[in-house]
Amino acid sequence: GASSGIGEAAARQLAKAGARVCLIARRADELARVQRAIPSAGGPCWEYQADLSDPESLDACAAAILEAHPRIDVLVNNAARSIRRSIRDSLERIHDYERTMRLNYFGALRLTLKLLPRFLAQGHGHVVNSSTMSAQLPIPLFSAYLASKSALDSFSRSLVAELGHKGITVTTVYFPMVRTPMS
C-alpha cells in the first residue's frame, strides 16, 4: 500500500533515512507518482504493481522482488481495506469479511511467507505490520477490519515465537485513527 496514506509517508521517510525502497501498490498511476518523488527525497526505489489481495499477482510481485534484490532486510505490511458497517447490517454480507481478510490478513501473510526463506538465509529479517489501536480495544462498526488485524497480530506473535531465535523480528504499529484515502 505504498501509493498513498501511511504507506506513501513511510516510503518517503525510509528513503530519506537511506533505505533502498521497493514500492508495491495496485494503482499504477499513483505508484509511479510516488516512485518519481522518492529519489529526490532520499534514495533509490523500485515500483512493483500488484494487487496484494490476488494470490497470483502477489506471487509474481514477490518473485520479481526476490530476483531483483539479493538482500531484503525489512517488509512493511501496510496495504489494507476497511469497511465501516455494523455486524447487524453485515448479516448477509459475508463477502465484506472475506475481501477484508483477503487483503489485510492473507495478503500480508502470503507476502511474509514468500520473503521468509530469504530472511532465514540471511540470518535476519524484520516485518513491520500496520495495525490499529482498536485491535486492542475494539470499537463498533469495524468488525471485519479489526478481525483481520487481530489475525495478523496473532500470526506475528507466533512467527517471533517460532523463528525469533533465527533473527526474525516483528514490529506492529498500532496507529490511532489516521486520515488517509482509506478512512
| Category from helices, strands and their pairing | alpha/beta
Number of strands: 5
List the total number of helices.
5
Q: Helicity, in percent?
A: 40-55%
Distance between the termini: 14 Å
Share of residues in strands? 15-25%
Low-confidence stretches: none
How does the overall form come out from the CA principal axes? globular
Reading side by side through the largest sheet, how are the strands ordered?
3-4-5
What integer is the average pLDDT?
A: 92
Give helix and strand order, one letter per element, not per position: HEHEHEHEHE
Summarize the structure.
By secondary structure, this protein is of the alpha/beta class. It has helices at about 5-15, 30-40, 55-70, 95-120, 145-165, and strands at about 20-25, 45-50, 75, 125-130, 170-175. α1 packs parallel to α2 (about 30-40), α3 runs parallel beside α4 (about 95-120) and α4 runs parallel beside α5.
Would you kindly provide a written description of the structure presented here, covering whatever features stand out?
It is built from five helices and five strands, in the order H-E-H-E-H-E-H-E-H-E. The chain is of the alpha/beta class and 183 residues long. It has a three-stranded parallel β-sheet with strand order 3-4-5, with helices on one face. The chain is globular and about 50 Å long. The protein starts with a helix and ends in an 8-residue tail after the last strand. 30% of the residues are buried.
